[in-house]
Amino acid sequence: MKKYLNKTPEGTRDLLFEECVARRAVEERLSTLFLSYGYNQVVTPSVEYYQVFSRSSSGLRQEDMYKLTDANGRLIVLRPDNTLPIARVVSGRLKEAPLPIRLFYCQKIFRRHMLMAGHSDECEQCGVELIGAGGLRADLEILTLAVRALDAAGVPGFKLEIGHAGFYNALCDLLDVDEDLRVDINELIEKKNYAALGDLLDTLPESEAVAALRRLPRLFGGPEILDEAAGLCASQRAQDSLAYLRRICAAVQKMGLGDSVTVDLGLVHRNNYYTGLVFRGYIPGSGATVLSGGRYDRLLGEFGEPHPATGFGVEVDELYKALLDSDGAPVVRVPDALVFGVDGYELEALERLGELTGSGLVCENFTGSSRAEAVRYAAVHGIPKTYCLSSGGWEEIDTALEVQA
Fold first, then answer.
1. Which terminus of the chain has fewer Cβ atoms in its 10 Å neighbourhood, N or C?
2. Do the Cβ atoms of 32 and 97 come closer than 8 Å?
C-alpha cells in the first residue's frame, strides 16, 4: 500500500511556488478582462450527473470520464466539460433571466487520457459563454474577446484559426453513412490523421462530398481559400457558411489581425454541438490548443430552453507554462520583513506582524528561539529586514549589514 504514498495518480501533478503564482496571474488577468466586458462568474459542481454529458452531441466517450456513484447509487462524473453544465444552469436557475446572459468561469475539467499521451487528466480552464445572442455582432464580440484573452495572458505571438461547422456538416449531410462512420470521420479530421482519413474515404462511393472531404484538410490559409472551397460543394448550407466566413474575415482585417488569423475549413471540434463559427488559438512553444470555441445554437434546446449561444474556453495550464518561460513571468514574492519576538513577547510580535501586513507588506513570523537564528534565517531566505521585539522594545535590523558585521 505504501507504493503510492508519495505519488500522484496518473495524469495529475503537484504545482509549486512559481507555477502557482503564474497560474493565478493568468486566471486574474482573464477574470478581470471578462468582468470588464460585462460577464458574470459562475461556479458549477465538480461532480455532475452522467446524463448531462452522455448525449452524443457532447463528443465525449463514456470511457473518457471519471465515474463514481452518489449515496443513492446514481451515476455521476467528475466534470469533463464546462459548457454543458452552464447549459444546464441557464435552462434551470437562469430560466427566467433576461437575455442575453453573459457568463464566465474559472474551474477544472477532468478527462481520462491514454497513458503516455502527454496530456493531463486535470486541467484548469477559464472561459465565457454568451447565451441568447445570435448573429454577426455576437460572434464578433466573442472573437474579439478571444483575441484579447490571448493577449492579456501575456504570451506574445498567438495565432488564431477560424472555420465554420456548417461547411463541414453540409458535406457530412451529403454522405450516405451511419452515425458511427460519421463520428470516425470527425475524429480523424479533428486529430488531423489524414492518411487514415483517406483510407476510410476510399471505402465510400466517390461523390462531390467525398471529394470535398478529401480536400478538406488542405483548405487552410488566407481568405482566398474560401473561393476554392466554394467550388467543391454546391450545397446552399455550405455556400452560406462560406459567405459568413467572408464577413468574419473582412472584420478580422479591419481589426488589424490579418497576420494572426488563418482560415481552416478542416477545423472540426470533437464536440458535436457546434453549429456556426468555430475557432482555435495557439501560442509559440506549445503544441497544444490553448483556446477553443465557437457557436452552438442547438445545445440549449437539449436542456429544454432553446437559445442561440457562443463562447470559448482557455487552457490556463498551457498559458501559465508559457508565461513561466517568458520575460514577463511573475515570481514568488520574497517577504519584506521577518518578525521575531523573544520568549514572552510572541503575541506582541504577531500583533506587529498584523500591522505590517495590513499596510501592504509581506511579512513572515519567525518560529525559532533567538535573535541570531532569526537574522541567519532572514539572510538565507533573502529577507531584507528583521524586526526583533524584546524587553528593550522593537529593534529594526538590516539583514545584509548584520550578516556582514
1. N
2. no
User: If you count them, how many residues does the chain have?
Assistant: 405
pLDDT, tens only, 112-153:
876 655 578 999 999 999 999 999 999 999 999 999 999 888
- Contact of 311 with 149, CB cutoff 8 Å: no
Global pTM? Answer: 0.90
Q: Enter the C-alpha cell of residue 202.
A: 476510399
Alpha helices in 57-164 (DSSP H): 83-91, 136-152
Write out 236-272 in H/E/C secondary structure. HHHHHHHHHHHHHHHHHHHCCCCCCEEEECCCCCCCC
Cα–Cα distance measured from residue 126 to residue 356, given in angstroms and rounded to the nearest whole number: 34
**CA–CA distance, 138 with 157 (Å, rounded to integer):** 25
Interhelix angle for 136-152 vs 18-36, to 10°?
A: 150
Q: For residue 40, what are the β-bridge partners?
A: 103
Residue 151 φ then ψ, to 5°: -70, -40
Separation CA 33–CA 158 (nearest Å): 17
pLDDT digits (tens, 9 = 90+) for 355-394: 999 999 999 999 999 999 999 999 999 999 999 999 999 9
d(CA 134, CA 49): 29
